Amino acid sequence: MLSIDSECRTLENGLSVVLAPDSAVPVVAVNLWYGVGSRNEMEGRTGFAHLFEHMMFQGSAHVPKGQHFELLESAGGSMNATTWFDRTNYFETLPAHQLDLALWLESDRMGWLLPAMNQEKLDNQRDVVRNEKRQSYDNQPYGDWQERIQALLFPSDHPYHHTVIGSMEDLGRAELADVEGFFLTYYRPNNAVLTLAGDFDPDDAFERVKRYFGEIPPGRPPPPHPGRTDIGFVIGQTARERVEAEVPLPRVYLACRIPPFTHPEFYTGDVLTSILGDGRASRVYRRLVREKRIAKDVAAFAAPLITGSSFMIMWATGLHDTDPVELERALENEMEAIREVEQQEVGRAVARSETELLRQVEGLASRADLLSMHQMIFSDANRLNGAVDLLRSVTPKDVSEFAASKLGADNRAILTYVPKPGG
User: Fold this and answer.
1) Strand pairing report for 78-83 and 88-95
2) Looking at the whole model, is its pTM more than 0.85?
3) What does the pLDDT look like over 297-355, one tens digit per residue?
4) Of the CATH numbers 3.30.830.10, 3.40.50.150, 3.40.50.2300, 3.20.20.80, which one belongs to the domain with range 237-419?
5) CA–CA separation, 366 vs 369, rounded Å?
């Protein structure tokens, strides 16, 4: 059981404020979650959430373009942002006496971004996103694996069918009015969680938050997620795709739908995934890398998604002489064999996950992010304190039953990359 001291207060405009004081070091982490990600994008309007990750650093009514980074770095701080399926987050870590600076900057772009938005900034950041896609997706070996796996796992009308970065064609058609409408719909205080973790007095910090954020008007409740979200936890088949690409080695991805992070069984799926492919003591590493010597590396994770269902995935990169068919069969065999599992394996996986969680909560920035996450998803930041107990509650019987009911041949997406001939 963790013992993170935190409380949540709410402004009149609906902004949830999580306060987690810790005077160990004179530093404060500011973390702002918005309940918007790629899942909220309409067909033909994909990529908007990720585009805003860029647009939010292009200046607001009282902060000139480029000044957000400069002001924070001049004050000894650091900052960044990420976009994912279910959320977008913006975060800063800086000396505790500079808290007002971070609050002012975040509040100004929440409340007064649109007056500074113009066509030039939109066009510029659209080009930045295009370059990012070329560098991270199109021109990277295996770079489009997420796009392909998502298409295999989720039907075309599900919010997770398309990638977080979205379609460049959609972004190319986007007009300034479309972008403004997206902002007004989702970047409102009643669709956000602001977490402060570090060296501050809770009452004083909350008054500061009210001073900067209190006058921002709330928006209407966000609309329902577009598309069909109630698709169940089973695909209904083994879906396969084989890709000849400019990759150095064969690689096979094997993914399955699983219950979402909000479901009681998610932690079972998470532990099971760790047993399979997390680290050098995992089953797949031991058997494919050490014993069979048909792979050079393996990896696995369960995604903590919340919209209808989630997924787990593992992959193995073969050697130059590895038969991709053999690699695929080996992964499927391990997926079948996981139905028989020992307590020692479960204990190792739980200990590994627990260690990683404890490492995260030690850092102020990652602690603040986890608190925002639990407040946004469960309306209870303190639920984080029970995460270790949820992991420890997973038993071998749970893992076996999960594997038997959810990881069969009717619930697999298999993506195989093979090097182009002569490549």
Assistant:
1) antiparallel
2) yes
3) 999 999 999 999 999 999 999 999 999 999 999 999 999 999 999 999 999 999 999 99
4) 3.30.830.10
5) 5
